Amino acid sequence: MSQEIIKLLLQGIQETAFMVFISTFIGALIGIPLGITLVTTSKHHILENKYINQLLGTVVNIIRSVPFIILMVAIIPLTRLIAGTSIGTTAACVPLTIVAIPFLSRLVETSIRDVDFGLVEAAQSMGASPFQIIRKVLLPEALPTIINNITVLIVNLIGASAMAGAIGGGGLGDIAIRYGYQRFRADVMLATIIILIVVVNVIQFGGDFTSRKKNKK
User: Fold this and answer.
1) DSSP letter string over the chain?
2) Residue 119's domain is classified under what CATH number?
3) Per the CB 3.0–4.6 Å rule, which of 93, 127, 128, 133 could disulfide with 22?
């Protein structure tokens, strides 16, 4: 494998890391509070509000029901508006983030629901406010599984970022398509696959390790 291809692969790794980091960061910034809201506004919970719950749930379900490859194409005008272009790594961050938010919110919702409601009732009986319950009861109790959720999100975004290469999103997926597939370079295709496998396994190991460290049970 030539030095040029090695340099190209290193650039692809950097581009993939950039896309995944940006979309994970923004996805977590919005998705975690959204997941908490979906739980706390549900029936008989601390911030019960049927209308907000149904509205947010519907929006999340609509976005999650659209296949990623179709979503990327469908929101090209929005991507161009936000990123100033519809191709490249920066542009790919827009659909990746839009996919990340509802995906993570549903995972977080499940994690929060698994917290023993008796802990919430105990906090309420001691006069804790809804915000205090979220900050001191729900989040600490669900933290290990939320870390696992973020790990799952990162792994899925790595796969989605590779798919973004199909429409010029950059990263390892773009290299695999332009060089491995279109130019029949089996060595390049194999190299990108190996890199993605290694990266995913490292991310999974790191997420599992961090989750175990945070688990006090």
Assistant:
1) --HHHHHHHHHHHHHHHHHHHHHHHHHHHHHHHHHHHHHHTSTTSTT--HHHHHHHHHHHHHHHHS-HHHHHHHTHHHHHHHHS-SSSHHHHHHHHHHHHHHHHHHHHHHHHHTS-HHHHHHHHHTT--HHHHIIIIIHHHHHHHHHHHHHHHHHHHHHHHHHHGGGT--HHHHHIIIIIITT--HHHHHHHHHHHHHHHHHHHHHHHHHHHHH---
2) 1.10.3720.10
3) 93
